[in-house]
Amino acid sequence: MRLPLVAFVLAPFTATVAFAAEPSARPNIVHIVSDELGYYEPGFMSGKTIRTPNLDRLAAEGLVFRNMFGGSSVCAPTRGSLMTGKHSGHASIRLNGGGTPLRADEVTIAEVLKPLGYATGGFGKWGCGGRGSTGVPEKHGFDVFYGYYDQVHAHSYYPPYLIRNSVEVPIPGNDGSDRNHAPTYAQYLIHDAAKAFIRENARRPFFAYLPYTPPHGNFSIPDSDPAWALYRDRAEWPMEARRYAAMVTMLDRQVGEILALLKELGLDDRTLVCFSGDNGGNDYFVTPQHPRGIHSANKHPDTGAEWRGKKGNLYEGGLRVPFAARWPGKITPGSRTDVLAYFPDLLPTFAAITGGTVPAGVDGLSLLPTLLGRPAEQKIHDYLYWEINGWTAIRQGNWRAVKPANARAWELYDLAVDPAESRDVASAQPAVLAKLTALAAAAHEPVREGTFARTDLHERDRRAKFGKQDDPSFSPTAGTPKKGKGKKE
Length: 489
Prior knowledge:
The protein is globular. It contains ten helices and 18 strands. A hairpin with a 7-residue loop joins strand 17 (about 400-405) and strand 18. It is of the alpha/beta class. A ten-stranded mixed beta sheet has the order 8-7-6-5-9-2-10-11-3-12, with helices on one face. A four-stranded antiparallel beta sheet has the order 15-16-17-18, covered by helices on one side. A two-stranded antiparallel sheet has the order 1-14. The protein folds into two domains: about 25-380, Alkaline Phosphatase, subunit A (3-Layer(aba) Sandwich), CATH 3.40.720.10; about 390-445, Arylsulfatase, C-terminal domain (2-Layer Sandwich).
């Protein structure tokens, strides 16, 4: 049984966001997610080492969120938060084993938009339920989802097959290994399918969710890709740092192709395009000269200011993501905002834009006033909340409390004077800490995960990373996800 829907009040915004009763008049939404792209890595966020001209143009023609946070610090939980509008104290996916599913009764963005006449397509890495579970995308409002359902499967860019609505689509010649001489790079297929979906649905409103896998996983890109030529001779970088940069530039090119397609189809002014990372960046490719990594995911390359932490923990660096939104005629070009926002806000935002309804139990707030340049009308979160793998964190304004895994005591930081979270002031501010920890306790409820009717298909997909999908005796190193046992993927 589905959760009840509650009407979302559009009153202040209908004069500006003009959608009509006819579905064809509703705006399109394209949301592109780059798996693991760090906060400071793209050019529009001050990155210096990786070329991202199309992302920079998207940002220059739209709005950049300087305080956008993922729903979690790892892949699966942050995607579940994005899809359902719930923070991780209420979400059904709080582990990162790879296939933990949404419950059957949870409502996603696609389910909010589909009753309005939207075509709904997803292309890339799902992470919200393996095959055979209650969480597969075609049971949660998607007309089509093509790519990877399981995160371990998504670790290979040369898998023997991809998944389309729970059915295997073979890729002849691929064996799962990330070898440059394998015949087919899966990201090319996924991107082509995304463009085909947009073209096929150009005459009706559509929601295109593009959770692209690059640059996560094995850092692999064909030598024939033009992006590789830009970095292959950077001998001062380790090979994987060069491959990583090329993958980001390849993704940038594909974003440019999406924008060009929208313009070709005459959909530019009718389409909101959002781009983001999925969770905090990692300190990849550390050297003595670059202790936070060559590409500086969490260290400002100009000022040297740092976000503490990285992917997998709940300091600021584990949660901050680059985020830009472009909507010609609605969003003022060159805009910036410091509003505190996170992935649970996307579902109510897209509902407000389209005239949809918001499911009960959603934790997010609509960001439509901010998109339209009406900051006085923007509702502000009382607090932002996260939990994962024994960690808990809560932020209220500039106060931030963190309880690391296995720690006895909470830490407290005043981000107004200490954005790097370097000075724990818990002992000096007991009243503030008590308030935040009480809010955190109230934000948590026991997890209720989705279920599997069968696990054999999901286990097969995990083996496919290694080309062992037909060998049930083979056990992937990552293992099959089990309740209470998360793994960083």
